[in-house]
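User: Here's a chain of 155 residues. Predict its fold as tokens.
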Amino acid sequence: MKKILKPIVAEFETKLAELSRDEILVFMSETSLRALPKLVEAADDPEYAVALLGVFVIDAMLADGFIAEEEYRIFAESYSMFFGHEPSRSECEHALKTASSDFHEVIGGMRNIMFALDDATREDIVKVCMCIFAVDGKIDEREKKWLFEILGEEA
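Assistant: Prediction complete.
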């Protein structure tokens, strides 16, 4: 039986409120690096799992309906590492919206992979999402609703 993650979300939200932006980013990076190999291992197609995680992160940024400045900066930094230049805000918004256009596929794909993971890795992925949500200074109810939808739990 998989662990119910709703209490973890509430507990971690309280912890995030005590962390600085830099501490949140460090925690998010460390947790992502720990979870990614397990996510890839659980998927039938490792390349698909990595791409799905990328779109999942983008969807997490958009879960509250807009791209906050902090979310834009994180995306722009990642984008510049891969493509060698920092995109404009309009390029970022276009890339984010294009990547998140297959929302239902992402939900289905991530839900399938999430249920194949052990509880600790599922919890890590939830915490990465919560870090993304918190980077703009608050966690919106729409963001939590989106996360619970991915997890297949009631908000």
